[in-house]
Records
---
Amino acid sequence: MRIRRPSVLAVLLTVAGVAVFCALGVWQVHRASYKQTVLVRFHRAADASLVPLATAVADPHRGDYPHVRVRGQLDGHRTYLLDDQMRDNMLGVMVFVPFRPSGAHTSVLVNLGFLPNRGPDATRLPALPPIPAGTVTLTGIYAPPPPPGLKLGGNPLIHETTWPKLVTWISTRQIADDLHTSILPHVLLLDPDPHSAYLRIWNANISMTPSRHMAYAFQWFTFAFVTVLVFLVLHRVKRERGRAVR
């Protein structure tokens, strides 16, 4: 296939387009690799050695999901219910309780786990099991709070006056303002307990899976290929057929 000489502008546009599409594809590949690393670290966290919560907070380089132990008191009178959660095809809530470590001035929000809604149409909120009032020792994964979906209506806590408070997303900053105390930016995902009423099946808080990043990478690389293909098609020289001589 013969190619006619392209204009400088056509070459620049093609090179720029290919460079941008390839850069976006490579970025998506890097994001997929990072997300895969996060997933591996999260799944290994439950079996990792326990460290004090204070150590994990003071050393952010210890890992994305440190497995921690902490002793203190749960504030069972002030509970937050994260609504519209699904586990094992059941609709329910995640139960969050403030926890004050012994000797500390900053609390941490503890995710006790999932409770399914009640009633034939699964719209009635579950009854909360009793929360220990004394000093307890907790173990779990210190992780970022669940990412919120679409936030509408501002801070919902200012409209809640009774406990437990029903929320549609977890914001440690808003909860700290609501409790008038300081709260750590991450939450504690308690270790599974077969004797507990709570279902504790934890997932890493990632907004996009590695496979989806790779799908986007393939899409961007395809755009780069199509850009080159269009450039060649637009600049090819068509062969003229000779007229037949009678």
---
Amino acid sequence: MLYLALSILFSSLIFVIFKLYIRFNVETPYAIITNYVVACAVGLVAYTGSFDFVEITQKSWFLGALALGVLFILIFNIMALTSQRLGVSVASVATKMSFVVPAVVGIFLYKEELGPLKVLGILIAIMAVYLSSIKKTALPFKLSLLFLPFLVFLGSGIIDTSIKYFQELHLKDGELPLFSATVFFAAGISGFVFMGFKAIKQRVRFNIINVIGGIALGVPNYFSIYFLVKALEYDGLNSASIFTINNVAIVLLSTLFGIIFFKERLSLKNWSGIGLAILSILLVSIT
């Protein structure tokens, strides 16, 4: 459970860093690219084995890790588009509700069993995430734009499901740092390609603030994934329970950080969601 707690902590710190981006005028897309480079470097430093690029390309998880890295960048851009078109709260809810995907896959693919209390806990968690994340928005809503949050929901769920799949069937002891570094390397390269296309249309200027922002984000981003995979190795809870607790607890801790550091105010719906989130964690944690 320590690994799960650390994953929740580092994931919630990402929320704080993104908030600070606004205060210090950090350009998020460029900081995100830097963040992936830093996260890749952290993974390589954490890897204690011998490094052989040719040998890495022959790993059973190599191509999957590359695809996962590309998906990281793709989903990030779709999340940004969703935030612009429908509001930040819609993108937030779609992302955090994605724990449903790996939870369902775990039941059918890994034959995980869920008792009635755990099922109830997951259902309550869905409502908790919605209520605690939703904010008022003045942006006009169009039914035709529903595919954007759906893509965010599906893409985020596929990422979590893939992480569980590689941890369960492909990763050997000691390979986690190398696997994570490869994922972030692919995400970073994809980001540079994206920035290259953008540079064709408009001039891209080097900004030290963006680099600092990327470094600040890269370290907790790496460890949020690293400790989540380590938590999935724990036999006391199945993956459905771990993903549910992870996402709901991130909502709780992020909300707490928002109140303490950014003086955010919560509506009655938000407080109701927090109460349901605590209840859902208790139900899902029951063994």
